Amino acid sequence: MEAERPVASHQLSLRDSETCQKYILAVKKANQEKREETGRSPRAYVLTFGCQQNEADSEKLAGLASEMGYEKAAHPDEADLIIVNTCAVREHAEQKALSIVGQYKHLKARNPELVIVMCGCMVTQAFRQNEIKHNYPYVDIVFGASSMFRFPQLLWEHMEKERRLIIPDEETYLVAEGLPVRRNSTYRAWVSIMYGCNNFCTYCIVPYVRGRERSRSKEDIISEVEELVKQGYKDITLLGQNVNSYGHDNQDGVDFADLLALIDNIEGDYTIHFMTSHPKDATEKLIDVIASGRHIAHHFHLPLQSGSDRILKAMNRHYDAQHYRKVLNYLRQRIPDVTVTSDIMVGFPGETEEDFCDTLAFLAEARFDMIFSFIYSPRKGTPAAEAADQIPPEVKSDRFSRLLQQQNEISLESNRRLVGSTLRVLCDGPSKNDPDVWSGRTDGNKIVFFDGSREDIGRFLTIRITRAEAFALYGEKESHG
Ligand code: 5AD
Ligand code: SF4
Fold first, then answer.
1. What is the pLDDT of residues 260-296, one digit of tens each?
2. Rounded distance, CA 296 to CA 96, Å?
3. Which atom, in ligand 1's list, is nearest to the CA of 345?
4. pLDDT, average across residues 363-380
5. Which ligand has the nearest atom to the CA of 195?
6. Confidence band for 148, pLDDT divided at 50, 70 and 90
7. Does the structure show a pLDDT above 60 at 215?
8. What is the C-alpha to C-alpha distance for residues 209 and 200, in angstroms, rounded to an integer?
9. Is 344's C-beta closer than 6 angstroms to any atom of ligand 2?
10. Relative to the CA of 344, which ligand 1 atom is closest?
11. 204 lines ligand 2 (CB under 6 A)
């Protein structure tokens, strides 16, 4: 069987792809035969590292596995197929994935029929593929972030020919439509609207591992959201590395603000979130659409990265602090109850104490509700990793803790302002740490703890906020929202 090759368009439609379907059926048949032999259904375990985009991809990998006859494994010990979907954004995520895969060696020794797959951003890099080839001989199949649709074919070939398949990622210009999805939640859903990134921030590996920007068609996105709303999904997050450049590569002139407005027209009881926005492309038009929307969360995640213009320039971010300030002011003026969150990085090469203090000063002024903070991690092949003036680890971690300390005070103050108000909260059920306390999230993605009951799960509740901490709100249930 030959792999299907894309033609002129970047849209590869798997709905119409008999080839992919053929491999799905071939694996399914092999699994059925095994089940008849052993009396046990094969099981698949999916482990995900990294961002929401990876979570969304993993739901598709799980969907493909399910179509191929695998049940869900609760633990790698009981799996016949293990899929590790990796991340490359920071060194820590890479080392963790490698160390966990290292632990699977003994599972393979116990069950030689176990198939171990590594895919996603980390293994799109040629040097990681080489490393796995030589140091992790029990990993059977490796493919990159853009080759997910080839998974059934690779699995079938591996089963047939019993050989390892480590394939370089070439097809970075594809949008695979129609892949089956096995969603982890019945009320929160991810919808990728585009893939890849064209921005080449100098610290970031994403453009190298996820390729150039490709937007899905508005028709495909709208029908996916309509279907989710029909199924009762309450919280839908539109995903892209930079959603603001959605549609630049499509012919229909629909930009992200237009897309959001079209989605907002869908009738139903649901909320739309989106991430991530690049400050250089966050337009007033987009902010106006959010302000007048009926279903669009009053939440904006807008990564600043640094408050120093010098560092922003070295990062190739194409905006300065003043531009960011203008976007933020317009956002708050048009949507007074908006929750604003950001990503901040410390220890970028050449960052001086003065640059770092510019970041602290900007945060003190911007008063974000919450930030995701990162220590710069050099990524092989990116320009910043080659810079001579890398920051020593102890300086990075000192800046990191000062950043957290300052932001904790700001987050606490922002949460305290909500005490006494009532908020709409989507209930997730018992919290991880204490099953007697229930948790949910506000439209601004703040976590709220309260006394709940089973039937609240997946429903919007009205919660009166009674107490605030830097990372959480506490409240009492008033009613169903
Ligand atoms: N080191 C540390 N943080 C990084 N990010 C991206 N690349 C790196 C890196 N090399 C952070 C950015 C981005 C977030 C998703 O991850 O802040 O916004
Ligand atoms: Fe990375 Fe910058 Fe693209 Fe975000 S916009 S994925 S930080 S290159």
1. 999 999 999 999 999 999 999 999 999 999 999 999 9
2. 36
3. 17
4. 98
5. 2
6. confident
7. yes
8. 11
9. no
10. 17
11. yes
Distance (angstroms) between ligand 2 centre and the Cα of 202 equals 9
Residue owning the nearest CA to atom 1 of ligand 2: 204
> In the sheet that 81-86 helps form, which strands lie side by side, from edge to edge?
71-72, 43-48, 81-86, 115-120, 141-143, 165-166
Ligand 2 centroid vs 430 CA: distance in angstroms? 35
Average pLDDT along the chain: 94
- How far is ligand 2, taken at its centre, from the CA of residue 218, in Å? 23
The amino acid at residue 231 is Q
Helices (H), ranges, 367-392: 383-386
| pLDDT greater than 90 at residue 2 | no
User: Taking CB atoms and a 6 Å cutoff, what residues make up the pocket around ligand 1?
Assistant: 89-90, 203-204, 303, 305, 343, 345, 374, 376-377, 379
Does the CB atom of residue 201 touch ligand 2 within 6 A?
yes
- DSSP string spanning 202-269? TT--HHHHH-S-EEPPHHHHHHHHHHHHHHT--EEEEE-TTGGGTTTTSSS---HHHHHHHHHTS-SS
Which tokens in the block code for residue 303?
């990564």
Q: Considering every ligand atom, which ligand is closest to the CA of 50? A: 1
Q: Where would I find the beta strands (DSSP E) of 158-232? A: 165-166, 175-177, 188-192, 194-195, 214-215
Q: Which ligand is nearest to the CA of 383?
A: 1
277, containing H or E segment: none
pLDDT for 480 beyond 60? no
Ligand 2 atom nearest residue 197's Cα: 3
Domains of the chain (ranges; CATH) run 14-166 (3.40.50.280), 189-416 (3.80.30.20), 422-480 (2.40.50.140)
The alpha carbon of 227 is separated from its chain's Cα centroid by a whole number of angstroms, namely 21
> pLDDT per residue over 218-258, tens digit each?
999 999 999 999 999 999 999 999 999 999 998 899 999 99
Q: For residue 427, give the nearest of 478, 365, 374 by alpha carbon.
A: 478
Cβ–ligand 2 distance for 50 under 6 Å, the answer no
281: which DSSP letter?
A: G
Residue to substitute in 89, 197, 205, 311 for testing ligand 2 pocket (most ligand atoms within 8 angstroms of CB): 197
Q: What is the DSSP letter of 471?
A: S
Strand partners, 86: 120
DSSP result, 409-435: HHHHHHHHTTTT-EEEEEEEEE-SS-T
Which ligand lies nearest to the CA atom of residue 390 in the structure?
Answer: 1
Beta bridge partners of 141: 117, 165
